[in-house]
Write a structure and sequence with these properties.
- The chain is α/β, with parallel strands linked by helices.
- It starts with a helix and ends in a 5-residue tail after the last helix.
Length: about 700
């Protein structure tokens, strides 16, 4: 019975770990006046899931200790408390290892710090220290265990939270943080072990109840403060307009009904179009995320801001980050009294690539469990029978975040941290429409995949993502074109992804209206690039500059008091978003802005650039993409220049699908357009590709492979 009782202690200890972790999340969130770390507070449903995980780990720890106890049975005769000590040691050791792993994967800590934690502080001596303490206080092992668990978890909570919390940025060194953690842990242990028995009679029960009560008070207090803040504060109408920039990933304009698509792919976006100025011919500056979003935020072209692919030695994926010399709209608005927040969903729109510039609060935390397929044989084994890969992707655990995760973070910021007495700028980036198109349903089944397609590829995998990759790469590799039934399958799923994205955006609108922000906000909705579905023998994006990959939706809803709506047909560049916003707000533009206001038809420079991936030249089936491209639209003509390739000219009115190259038939027009583009390349400094190179680490490479950017 004693052994079983000891085994059952482990879940109790892990319940304490959970309670303390949750308490610290609320405490640290509450202490942040600028919204830092709001993204780490789980929703109630997530709390329940996390608690169940903690309990499961506790049960595993208890069984592990039980097996160890049976194995060492001959060595512990006469030592009745050995089982209790063993359970406590196993639990705290697992706790330490989990926290070391957590720290080692946190981008908030420089590498030398978490190596210091992992290698020097805890791993070798922890078991001996805990055993020594338990033996020294054998009069009440349960109370000792509770005290140790509480103090150790407080130690780890402070270590984990301080590097991201309010005090870290005010001069607290790592050594000071460690000292504070040790001191607090020691004080808590001393109080729990020596003082609390004098205050309560039923020690075992009261220690657990005391911790639960403290946690409950923190949660209730936090909830009351937050709710009262929402009730008392509402968005005033007499302040400067808020700016909300919504960038959707991979939505091409011609798949929205407001742009002429036959189906209603998003009623939310159609509703937004009725309240907005809709730009019917808006062009991205690039056909993939990093350079396009950089252009949207800076009002400059890729060759100038430098955020794009870069040639590097050997077959290594490398890109330029957005250098600090660039001035983003977040920085401009921040300097003019705005509170700024950004919540992003893709590896390429993170602080690692320079996109956190000018943000008071920047949530780019992306859960990436790709390592599980490399590190854990069990998951790789299960993936053969059940669609584990699909589940990770659909849940936002595969190198990106889904719209639900973006909204959870956005709602917390809007409700608890968005200012009511001054304006704010909020950037939201949604990734849902990106390949693979997995809006609903996981896995391959008779209901989701036509029989002919399943037979055509005959894959030994239950994952839809694997099948979709096979279809896409059969086209990219030039084996065949995209067949009609394959086109129907992919585009129908893509349409549902757009519907899902619209649903998430609609939820944000509902929250803005509830909080009183909607009517006094400029809301810009656009996409970073489009997508290819077999056109020109291409799939996905990032390899060409045809219309399907660079023509994107753009809608701007102005504050209700202005009531500005309408439709603009002349071509505009997304570099015009920044000058349009700043002009409306009456804020002076930075000197390097290259875009012009979107209502200026004469000054638009419709230029897009695509720098090739340096690895493409080493792959037989990607060699055809291995050349830098620049495109330029002049009136009805569109010119594409491939450096090292042939010139291409299309007349978009007569040939909207870009099937007929007329460069050889219209030499005079081609000469005029080339001369004009050469002048822009020179004047706008679009030929530089050597700005702030950044090599990509192994973890990022795994993310990029999962997103289809590397093969």
């Amino acid at each position: 019975m004693g052994t079983i009782r000891s085994t059952l202690l482990a879940p109790v200890y892990w319940t304490l770990f959970f309670i303390i972790d949750l308490s610290f999340l609320f405490i640290f969130t509450f202490t942040q006046s600028n919204g830092i770390d709001l993204n780490i507070v789980p929703a109630p449903g997530e709390c329940l899931k996390i608690m169940l995980i903690y309990l499961c780990v506790g049960i595993v720890a208890g069984f592990a200790a039980l097996l160890m106890s049976v194995t060492l049975k001959g060595l512990i005769q006469g030592k009745s408390r050995f089982n209790d000590i063993l359970v406590l040691t196993v639990s705290i050791t697992i706790n330490c290892l989990v926290n070391i792993y957590d720290l080692s994967n946190a981008h908030h800590l420089p590498a030398f710090r978490y190596h210091l934690i992992a290698g020097v502080i805890l791993v070798p001596p922890c078991v001996k220290i805990f055993m020594f303490i338990c033996k020294a206080f054998t009069r009440n092992v349960f109370l000792t265990g509770v005290s140790l668990c509480v103090s150790v978890e407080i130690f780890w909570s402070i270590i984990r939270c301080f590097p991201k919390g309010a005090y870290w940025g005010t001069g607290m060194s790592f050594g000071s943080t460690l000292l504070v953690a040790v001191c607090v842990g020691g004080v808590v242990f001393s109080f729990l072990y020596f003082v609390s028995p004098l205050l309560v009679t039923r020690t075992k029960r009261s220690m657990v109840m005391l911790t639960v009560i403290i946690c409950a008070v923190c949660i209730i207090y936090k909830k009351n403060v937050a709710e009262s803040g929402i009730i008392e504060q509402s968005g005033p109408s007499n302040k400067q307009a808020n700016v909300i920039l919504i960038i959707t990933d991979t939505i091409r304009a011609d798949f929205l009904s407001s742009y002429g698509y036959a189906k209603e792919t998003s009623s939310v976006l159609s509703g937004l179009a009725q309240e907005s100025v809709v730009y019917k011919n808006a062009y991205s500056t690039a056909s993939w995320t990093l350079p396009s979003v950089a252009s949207i935020l800076t009002g400059t072209y890729p060759g100038f801001h430098g955020g794009h692919r870069v040639e590097s030695a050997g077959n290594i994926f490398s890109v330029n980050k957005l250098a600090e010399e660039n001035v983003t709209i977040a920085e401009v608005l921040q300097q003019n009294g705005y509170t700024t927040a950004g919540i992003t969903s893709c590896e390429f729109v993170t602080g690692k690539f320079g996109f956190d510039q000018g943000f008071d609060y920047f949530d780019d935390a992306i859960s990436n469990y790709c390592f599980a397929f490399l590190s854990f044989g069990l998951l790789r084994f299960l993936d053969v029978f059940i669609p584990v890969r699909d589940y990770l992707w659909a849940s936002g655990f595969y190198g990106h975040r889904i719209g639900k995760q973006i909204n959870e973070s956005a709602f917390r910021w809007l409700e608890y941290a968005a200012p009511r007495e001054k304006p704010f700028f909020l950037l939201l980036h949604y990734f849902d429409a990106h390949h693979p198109y997995l809006p609903e349903g996981i896995g391959i089944s008779d209901e989701t995949i036509p029989l002919d397609i399943r037979r055509r590829y005959a894959l030994n995998s239950p994952n839809y993502t694997v099948l979709e990759n096979s279809i896409i790469y059969s086209v990219i590799k030039g084996k065949k074109g995209l067949l009609a039934d394959e086109y129907a399958l992919l585009t129908e799923n893509y349409e549902r992804e757009i519907q899902l994205t619209g649903k998430h955006i609609g939820e944000v609108f509902d929250t803005l209206k509830k909080l009183g922000f909607y009517d006094n906000s400029i809301i810009i909705m656009t996409s970073d690039h489009g997508e290819s579905f077999g056109e020109h023998g291409q799939m996905l994006h990032g390899t060409s500059l045809y219309e399907e990959t660079i023509k994107v939706p753009l809608m701007i809803k102005y504050p209700k008091k202005d009531g500005t709506t309408g439709s603009i047909d002349f071509p505009v560049s997304l570099t015009g978003i920044v000058p349009t916003i700043l002009t409306y707000l009456g804020i002076q533009m930075p000197p390097d802005i290259q875009g012009v206001e979107l209502n200026n038809s004469e000054g638009q420079k419709i230029i897009s650039q695509n720098y090739s991936d340096p690895s493409w030249k080493y792959n037989q089936w990607t060699k055809r993409f291995a050349q830098d491209l620049i495109s330029f639209r002049s009136g009805d003509y569109k010119y594409m220049k491939a450096f090292g390739g042939e010139d291409v000219l299309f007349h978009l009115t007569a040939d909207p699908d870009e099937k007929h190259n007329i460069a050889g038939k219209n030499h005079l027009e081609l000469s005029k357009i080339k001369k004009k583009l050469d002048g822009y390349i020179r004047d706008l400094q679009l030929a530089d590709s050597s700005v702030c190179p950044i090599g990509v680490d192994k973890k990022t490479i795994q993310s990029l492979k999962s997103l289809g950017y590397m093969h």
